[in-house]
Write a structure and sequence with these properties.
Hypothetical protein af1432
C-alpha cells in the first residue's frame, strides 16, 4: 500500500486507519452485548461491521487533495498551520454510503456512524456549521469543483486495498459528489429530528454518543501510539473507555 498519504504530520493514513481498527478489535468482544442493548438489535455481527467501517473510514476526508497539501506543508515546516481543513464531513458521507452498499439492512446504524464521525472533532453538539451548511464548508475549504470532490492521487487505490483487507466491497471515491454530500446531510438532519418526537430523539442521541466515544477512544489511542507517549495513553484510558482495555 501507498505510504505517501498522511493522517498527520507524524503518521501515514494507512498506519492510522489500521491502528484504529486494532484498538476497536481490543474492546469489541467486551462491548458488543452492551452495544446491542443500546441499539436494540440482535444482529451483533451487523453492528460490529458498521462500527468497523466507522473506525476504518472516519478520516477519509483527509484523502482530499487540499487536506494532503496542507498536512504536507505542515510536516515540511514542522510548525502549526492555523487554518483547519475539514475532513469529518467527507469521512461521514463515505462511511454512510459504504454501509448502504455493504450493509443496507443496518443503514439506521450507518446514520449513527455518520453523525459520530461528523462530530468526532467538535464534541457532542448536533448544531455546528457541519450540520447547518456542510456544502458551504466544502466550497470554502476548496474541497470541491462543481460536482466533483477533489481527491488526492492514489487515494482511491489505498481505500480499495483497505476495504478488501477488512472484507468490504469497495465504494469508489468518485461516487462521492457534491450532491451525495447534500443528500446524506439532509437524511441525517431529518433522522436526528425524529419528527420532533422527544423520546426518539433521546434514543438517537444516546446511540450517537456511544459511537462517538468508541471512535474517540480508537482515534486518540492510535494517534498517541504513533507518538509513543505512554503518559498520554494512560490519560486517555482514564478519561474515556479505557477500563474496557484492561486485561
Amino acid at each position: 500500500m501507498s505510504l505517501n498519504l498522511l493522517a498527520s504530520d507524524k503518521e501515514s493514513y494507512e498506519q492510522h486507519a489500521q491502528t484504529c481498527v486494532k484498538e476497536w478489535m481490543k474492546i469489541k468482544n467486551r462491548a458488543i452485548q452492551s452495544l446491542q442493548r443500546i441499539f436494540e438489535t440482535e444482529n451483533g455481527d451487523g453492528l460490529q461491521k458498521v462500527i468497523l467501517a466507522m473506525v476504518l473510514h472516519h478520516d477519509v476526508g483527509k484523502l482530499s487533495r487540499r487536506w494532503q497539501q496542507q498536512i504536507t506543508l505542515q510536516k515540511e515546516k514542522a510548525g502549526f498551520i492555523s487554518k483547519k481543513i475539514n475532513h469529518s464531513i467527507l469521512g461521514g458521507v463515505y462511511t454512510y454510503h459504504l454501509v448502504a452498499e455493504n450493509l443496507n439492512e443496518n443503514l439506521q446504524i450507518g446514520k449513527v456512524a455518520f453523525e459520530a464521525i461528523l462530530i468526532h472533532h467538535s464534541g457532542l453538539s448536533i448544531s455546528t456549521p457541519m450540520h447547518e451548511d456542510p456544502e458551504g464548508m466544502l466550497f470554502r475549504d476548496g474541497l470541491v469543483k462543481g460536482e466533483r470532490i477533489l481527491w488526492n492521487d492514489g487515494a482511491d487505490t489505498l481505500l480499495e486495498q483497505l476495504n478488501g483487507k477488512y472484507g468490504f466491497e469497495h465504494y469508489p471515491l468518485d461516487m462521492i459528489s457534491f450532491s451525495s454530500v447534500k443528500t446524506a446531510s439532509d437524511i441525517s438532519k431529518a433522522w436526528l429530528w425524529c419528527g420532533g418526537i422527544r423520546e426518539k430523539q433521546h434514543k438517537v442521541r444516546i446511540c450517537t454518543s456511544t459511537l462517538y466515544h468508541i471512535l474517540k477512544l480508537c482515534d486518540l489511542r492510535a494517534a498517541w501510539i504513533s507518538r509513543k507517549d505512554e503518559r498520554d495513553l494512560r490519560l486517555i484510558e482514564r478519561l474515556t473507555l479505557g477500563v474496557a482495555l484492561e486485561e
